Request: fold
Amino acid sequence: MRLLLVGECRDGRLAAEIAELFGFAARLDAEVSMALAGLADDLPAFDGRLYLADLETYGEFSSGAHKRLVLAAVEREQPDTVVLLHSSYGWDMAPRLAAAMQSAQLSGVVGLDDDGYVVESCNGKMLRTVRPQTPVAVLTVQPGAFKSPAMSGQPEVIAVETLPESAIELVGCRQPEAGVDLTRAEVIVSAGRGVGSAEQVALVEALAKALGGEVGASRQAVDAGWLDRSRQIGTSGQSVSPALYVACGISGAIQHLAGMKGSGFVLAVNTDRDAPIASVADLLVVSDVAEFLPALVEALEKR
Ligand SMILES: Cc1cc2nc3c(=O)[nH]c(=O)nc-3n(C[C@H](O)[C@H](O)[C@H](O)COP(=O)(O)OP(=O)(O)OC[C@H]3O[C@@H](n4cnc5c(N)ncnc54)[C@H](O)[C@@H]3O)c2cc1C
Reply:
């Protein structure tokens, strides 16, 4: 099997999750090549051909130019499958590529089974196994679903000159206002929907304070307006790797797990002993957060 992986840069660097695309390829025992708008001194380490467009010229998110870069690589490599991250870059690029190649497109692959690709549906509540019916397919891989392998090797770089598409002019990019940086926190106590209300978030804040940590959040807690979006952990939030991660009333959807899978010790507090968070927790306390969190804070303060 031949895969063409599509790389992605953020803030001028190769996105860390790109390594997971190689993990996906390894599971399929596939031969890989890559297309990337990137910088010559920040390339992924692998043995294969790398079709490289200059990041300085084409920018990180110029879908017209990047599409042409990938299509040029597709023409040369004739892959069975084009693989992108399930990120805002991948969401934009995958349908463009699939339309141009008249190929099937699968979004958010989280696993492989004997019959095909496993993708999420209904906001992660259901898994479907699907198989593309076209000779070439385009798919996006959910960050966190496949392990990053140890990267080694040196790609053969093939410089590709692409012309920006005139249909879209990239006027500029700007960063959202700086929020809290949770990436360096040693302890994070996160609130999920199970915390129940904005007022109850105080219980989570009290535990974070007692442990000298930061407060994080699931997307549901952010969408409910209980905590600022800059505290969201997961595929559409921050990726964190604290020594201690406490998940309070968080079910453990794959999009959340993707952002905290690098944590050291994971303590989960949940009323449901079968919640998916149990699969990554070192310790699961089956309890109502309203009972357990104040008791834990009291015990810590006594110490
Ligand atoms: C494209 C996309 C991107 C996404 N990005 C993210 C992301 O970056 N981060 C993210 O978190 N999610 C993300 N999501 C959403 C994700 O799929 C889940 O919906 C979300 O993580 C669920 O949040 P939650 O665990 O707080 O809520 P729920 O799934 O509703 O879970 C609540 C949990 O609390 C427990 N509970 C209820 N009451 C109590 C109580 N009194 N005490 C203790 N436990 C209790 C329940 O048993 C349950 O397990 C994304 C989804 C999509 C489709």
Remarks:
- The chain has eight helices and 16 strands.
- The pocket of flavin-adenine dinucleotide is lined by residues 123-124, 192-194, 196, 218-221, 232-237, 249-251, 253, 255-256, 259, 269-272, 275, 288-289 (CB under 6 Å).
- The first helix runs from residue 18 to 27.
- The chain has two domains: 2-159, 187-302.
